[in-house]
Design brief:
Layout: H1 5-30, H2 34-56
Protein name: DUF2207 domain-containing protein
Keywords: Membrane, Transmembrane, Transmembrane helix
């Protein structure tokens, strides 16, 4: 299986969505104080970067 640039961006998007979901889950279920808000904010940031990677597919 050849890994071209679109495949790499697709894998990066998938991995970042999984990590983002994990961070949001940590913020929601593990930490009840202010740290939970930080984990959730970073998870949303991961979603934003994954969205950019998804938008770059086919254009790079």
């Amino acid at each position: 299986m050849a890994m071209n640039k679109n495949t790499v961006l697709a894998w990066a998007t998938t991995i970042m969505i999984i990590v983002g979901l994990g961070l949001i889950a940590l913020g929601a279920f593990r930490y009840d104080d202010v740290a939970g808000w930080g984990f959730a904010a970073v998870g949303i940031g991961f979603f934003a970067i994954a969205w950019v990677f998804n938008a770059l597919k086919g254009r790079v």
